[in-house]
Every structure is written in structure tokens, then in C-alpha cells.
């Protein structure tokens, strides 16, 4: 029955929004592996559903970019209309509409794909990391929120669903529930401009050139080029040119004829936390980050790609090192990306 519903739902453009909050709000993480006293993370503590859900992509992106929190690590509330918090089954359904969902960028993008893996593996303990090859020390260091500790666990992140399928296939809920699910969810780490030729070739190789296969791209850049707008735009334009060259389709999204285009979402960096190293306070502090987010939003609109700002959602959140969010913040980002993917045809 689940498989039948999935096959039928793939014909639809998106999960309906009209009745998504009619059910009683629940902590969707409670059923995940390793949830409990040692990893007591509630989805309701990250995002508390309230009000009507945004009806289209653009209003959703505006609401998610401009919301806020009522206190340190309080649940995030989008502004104007609300986002959805998807279950793992719904996340698999959304991702399953695409042959590839490719993230391109730095460690913040790597953390988003880690959080997406927590959802589709239903594991709050080790869902974001390659726990299949952990020793006891790594199991201790990279558990629960510490999966996103860059110093100890950054090299342990999951880079693609292919790695999960190869090393721990039973942990991937999507293929268990939906036997035909075969989405290539991956990240290509390209952190700076000029882009090294080897990294550029790797991105070209990663993109399936088949124009009949639906793809989506999530991009993120900034800190490695010290929030220099010109260099970030050069990075962005080269990545967009590569996507268009490989897919033989435009990356432009807005307008009445956008359905045949390749969707692209630009995600700008987190706010700066109190542990931001002093040497970066001026060039990468909150004033510089806000300016960068605003300017990149304008430039994204000129290129007719979508933009998600994360400064508002991170300014009152825990940041391990003044830069990177913990599991709660990255799960919120992952849900924002899923909301964008779900509304692309709206």
C-alpha cells in the first residue's frame, strides 16, 4: 500500500499544503534511532508549526529567510507564513522526484546534506556521519549534536547516498519503503574561487547529462573568499555555466515557462557567533555577513535563481565555533531545502 501511494504521488507536483498541519503537531524525531535521554532532540524545539503554510516557492523563501527566534535556541518561526516539517517518508518522496539533488559548496552545505541524511536514515545519533567505519572513540566524539563539530567530525560526513547504499544500505529508509527510489543525493565540495581545475572536472563528471532526468542544485559560497562579492559571483557564474553546459538546460527559474529549467537555490552563510575568531570579526562579522546576504540576494535575482538567507535563522542559535551550526540548526536548514524542493512546481 505504501509503495502504491508512492508511485501515485510521484505524478503530483508537490505534497499538498492545505491539510499538512491539520494533524496534531508531533516530534517527528522521536521515532528515530538513538533518540532518547542521551540525544533528546525534538523537532518541535527546532520549529513549532503555527499559522498557515506558505502556498508558493517565493513566499516560502521570503518567510524562511526573514523569520526569527524568541530567545537563544528557541524554535524558529518563519515570517508571514509557515514552512512544513516533513517526516522521513515525505522527505524521501520529495527527493525521489529528482534523479539528482546536488549540493555544491563549503562545510555549511556539507552539513545540510548531513542533516538530510539524518532524516532519510532516521538516525539522530549517527545519521549524518559514516558510522559504519567508526571506532569506539569516534562513536563517542561524533554522536548526536557532535556530528557537526567541524574539528572532530568534519571528515566523517556522508557525501552521497551512494556511500550509504554501498556501506550501510539497511539504514536508508527511502529504498526500504520505495523500492524504485534511486535519487543521487550528493555534495561536491568547491569552497573557493578561483576553482581548482580538479574540482571543476569533478563537478562536471558528477552531473548526469541526460536532459530527461530531473535535477536540482543547492549552492553555497562566501567565507573562503572572505565575503568578497566579485569573487563569489565569479564562483557562482562558473558553477551555473557548468550546470547549464552539462544539462543543456537553463538555470533560470522564474516566469511562466520555468518548468523545463534546472532549479538552483543559493544559500548564503550563517550569522557569526560569539566564538568567531577575533581576526575575522571585521571581514566576516555580522555586519559583513548581512551585507553579503543582501547583495547576493540581489545578484541571485538578476540571474533568476532562488535564494535562501540563513542569517536570521542562525543569529540566536548555537554555533560551535562561531561559524557552524549544531544538529538542530542543520536539521532546520535541511527542512528549508525540502520545502523549496517541494514547491518548485507551484
Short description:
The chain is α/β, with parallel strands linked by helices. 38% of the residues lie in helices and 7% in strands.
Q: Which features characterize this protein?
A:
single chain, 346 residues, alpha/beta, 5-stranded parallel beta sheet, 38% helix, 7% strand, globular, disordered N terminus
Describe this entry's structure for a reader.
By secondary structure, the chain is α/β, with parallel strands linked by helices. The chain is 38% helix and 7% strand. It has 14 helices and five strands. Strands 2-1-3-4-5 form a five-stranded parallel β-sheet, sandwiched between helices. α4 packs across α5 (107-121). The chain is globular and about 45 Å long. The protein starts with a helix and ends with a helix.
Helix-strand blueprint:
Elements lengths: L1 H8 L33 H4 L10 H9 L22 H8 L4 E6 L1 H15 L14 H6 L8 H4 L7 H7 L5 H5 L6 E6 L7 H10 L8 E5 L9 H19 L16 E4 L18 H17 L3 E3 L2 H4 L12 H16 L4
Helix pairs in contact: 3-14, 4-5, 5-14
